[in-house]
Design brief:
Elements lengths: L10 E10 L11 E2 L4 E2 L7 E6 L4 E6 L5 E4 L4 E4 L9 E5 L3 E2 L10 E13 L5 E7 L5 E2 L4 E4 L17 E9 L8 E2 L2 E2 L19 E6 L8 E11 L9 E12 L1
Parallel strand pairs: 1-19, 13-14
Antiparallel strand pairs: 1-9, 2-3, 4-5, 6-7, 8-10, 10-18, 11-17, 11-19, 12-13, 14-18, 15-16
Length: 254
């Protein structure tokens, strides 16, 4: 990124680092279920099963025919009870974020930015999307820091700050946003709706789940947009400079 120095001004930027983790293991497809049980997959064979010890786990089948991987330029087939349990997952991001507008350090104000994440998976159990920062507080420069927004046990419906404070926070939007960011009657963590750009919280150095999908969304995927906000109070006295926050967004198949 290209940075300029601003005299008597305050400028904030956000850099996003993306980590995608794809796991291969026993899938969550199901062919029969009731209120009391769920059969993930069935198989007609003459033997095999699950074997474990303190140092390994093995699951096998005996007697299936025409099993194994088969690929061409236009398809990929995984035939058989064991082969079909491979999970596909991808994570795409719209890019780094530059907060706008630049803020005067003397009078303060509000600066906003956003980034969009699209997760595609064929995992029958869905996926989980989490965000975290590498620093505490997240927004830092070589001349100072901006505190993370900390509304308490649950996110704050609005983003209030005192005139002497400067804070950095976020809120996610999308079809799979978790209950934490839902709201009812101005309270977050409740209800069945997500009012646009409400329920703000601060970043953490540990993974913070922001979205979770149930079931395969392949091939269209599911999109989550994370909105970032910096608010500087009129008497906060933030030192002019370029402030940067680095985050890691991780997608996991369930």
């Amino acid at each position: 990124m290209f940075y300029r120095s601003f005299r008597n001004s305050f400028f904030s930027a956000l850099v996003l680092t993306i980590v995608t983790l794809s796991l291969i293991g026993v899938g969550e497809a199901q062919v029969r279920s009731s209120s009391n049980y769920r059969i993930q997959s069935d198989s007609v064979n003459v033997g095999g099963g699950l074997a474990t010890s303190t140092s390994y786990g093995q699951e096998s089948t005996i007697g299936e025919v025409a099993t194994g991987p088969s690929d061409s330029s236009i398809y990929s087939l995984r035939a058989g009870y064991q082969q079909m349990q491979e999970v596909y997952l991808s994570l795409a991001v719209s890019g780094d974020v530059t907060m706008s507008p630049n803020l005067p350090g003397v009078t303060g104000g509000t600066s906003n930015g956003s980034s969009t994440f699209t997760v595609i998976t064929d995992s029958p159990a869905g996926y989980q999307l989490a965000i975290q920062t590498g620093n505490s507080p997240a927004m830092q420069s070589n001349v100072g820091t901006i505190a993370d927004y900390d509304p308490g046990a649950t996110p704050s419906f609005t983003f209030p700050i005192a005139s002497s404070e400067a804070r950095f926070g976020f809120t996610p939007e999308g079809v799979d946003v978790v209950q934490t960011f839902f709201n009812s009657a101005g309270l977050c963590g409740l209800g069945f709706e997500k009012t646009f750009q409400t329920c703000w919280d601060g970043l953490e150095t540990t993974p913070y789940t922001i979205a979770q999908g149930s079931g395969s969304n392949h091939p269209s995927g599911a999109t989550t947009t994370v909105y970032f906000r910096v608010r500087v109070g009129s008497s906060a006295g933030v030192i002019a400079g370029v402030y940067t926050a680095t985050t890691t967004v991780t997608a996991l198949p369930l």
